[in-house]
TrEMBL record:
<keyword id="KW-0472">Membrane</keyword>
<dbReference type="InterPro" id="IPR010067">
    <property type="entry name" value="ABC_SsuA_sub-bd"/>
</dbReference>
<feature type="signal peptide">
    <location>
        <begin position="1"/>
        <end position="27"/>
    </location>
</feature>
<dbReference type="InterPro" id="IPR044527">
    <property type="entry name" value="NrtA/CpmA_ABC-bd_dom"/>
</dbReference>
<comment type="similarity">
    <text>Belongs to the bacterial solute-binding protein SsuA/TauA family.</text>
</comment>
<dbReference type="Pfam" id="PF13379">
    <property type="entry name" value="NMT1_2"/>
</dbReference>
<keyword id="KW-0997">Cell inner membrane</keyword>
<protein>
    <submittedName>
        <fullName>Aliphatic sulfonate ABC transporter substrate-binding protein</fullName>
    </submittedName>
</protein>
<keyword id="KW-1003">Cell membrane</keyword>
<keyword id="KW-0813">Transport</keyword>
<keyword id="KW-0732">Signal</keyword>
Length: 373
């Protein structure tokens, strides 16, 4: 990348490209797909329960990915609704981060599960005024899967066509950083260079792999396991590149205005999240089935066992937002030329999460010095 390239302009172009494909695929809703009206018994408001702060509903967003397992399982098992009383949990699903950030900014959702890169971008573009990260959800679940006939070792990736979900998204940034660490050169904007980075929607990546138009992909679950089911080989698990094999893949964010106006509702959602994560840990097989069942409700399709089982095993559910790794991921985006050095001070507010964790007898979590003052 030329040294004099304006990185702010590049970021704006990147975000526009990143938003384009998912927005074309959205349903009638402006920003995402409203969850189907298929409310289970567990999701229904309990008789005699009361609204929190008199609020009728809270609007919650998430992706139909296993890396958003807390949202999938918590919704399916009614664990959020249980904590919210008569304040109804209303859900919207998204295909990608930019559209979810748009929805948060517009008030179409109040709270969401999302990856680190869109959270960073949303926070920095608003000059620190749009959102706060209020909790963790998942670590891991990202792999480099390749065609073993074309790529037999990491050095063979050079000269090949490798897909990432979208320009500037979390996996794209990670792959660009890995490429740079190999000493190879790639233009972040075009994806051209020693490796061809092909930005491809996760929904069509398996078909692109089968057709031979890509040689592999750096992708989250369950897309990685779908590629393996098509004959791909896991060449690298991203967790091996991180200290303690942990890095943030999904966080919980909230609109700053909603947090200020309805902290009790936010606390209730966090109680539901912590309760869900505890239930997942105690009931891994039931939780896996619940996540898959919710995926079927949301998309009309469930994952086959050969995809679901390995994908589920590679994801670590956590309450910890792993703040230090978010800071590192931001530095990777800067190095790739996708982001000017951001000021992330204040991006976290873990006050309510630590209150919930303390009440549950669990250890508090740290904001790596990036907490709101």
């Amino acid at each position: 990348m030329p040294a004099n390239r304006n990185r702010s302009a590049l970021l704006r172009r990147g975000l526009a490209v990143a938003a384009a494909l998912p927005l074309l695929a959205l349903a009638a809703c402006s920003y995402g797909s409203e969850a189907k009206d298929d409310t289970s018994e567990k999701e229904k408001v309990a008789a005699g329960s009361e609204k929190i702060d008199g609020l009728d509903s809270v609007k919650i967003g998430y992706f139909g990915n296993l890396t958003h397992a807390t949202a999938l399982v918590g919704r399916h098992e009614g664990l959020f609704q249980k904590e919210l009383g008569a304040t109804k949990a209303e859900y919207t699903t998204f295909n990608a981060g930019p559209s979810e950030i748009e929805a948060l900014n517009s008030g179409s959702i109040d709270i969401g599960w999302i990856g680190p890169s869109p959270a960073i971008n949303g926070y920095t573009k608003s000059n620190g005024k749009s959102l706060r990260i209020i909790g963790g959800s998942a670590s891991g679940g990202v792999k480099l899967v390749v065609d073993p006939k074309k790529i037999k070792s990491l050095k063979d990736v050079k000269g090949k066509k490798i897909a990432t979900p979208q320009l500037g998204n979390t996996q794209d940034v990670a792959f660009l950083n890995w490429i740079a660490e190999q000493g190879w050169k790639v233009d972040a904007d075009s994806g051209k260079g020693d490796v061809s980075v092909i930005r491809t929607d996760n929904k069509i990546t398996p078909d692109a792999y089968k057709s031979g138009s890509i040689d592999g992909a750096w992708v989250p679950e369950p897309t990685a396991s779908k590629l393996v089911a098509e004959g791909g080989k896991v060449l690298l698990d991203e967790s091996t590149l991180w200290p303690d094999k942990k890095f943030v893949i999904t966080n919980i964010i909230v609109s700053q205005s909603f947090l200020k106006e309805h902290p009790k509702v936010v606390e209730a959602v966090l109680k539901g999240s912590v309760a869900t994560n505890k239930w997942i840990g105690a009931n891994p097989d039931k939780a896996k089935a619940a996540a898959n069942a919710q995926l079927k409700v949301d998309s009309g399709k469930e994952l086959p066992a050969e995809v679901l089982d390995p994908a589920w095993k590679s994801i670590q559910i956590t309450n910890d937002p792993l703040a230090a790794t978010l800071n590192t991921e931001a530095a990777h985006a800067v190095k790739a030329g996708l982001l000017d050095k951001p000021n992330l001070n204040g991006i976290y507010d873990l006050t309510l999460l630590n209150k919930v964790l303390s009440a549950a007898g669990e250890s508090s979590v740290d904001d790596a010095g990036l907490g709101a003052k």
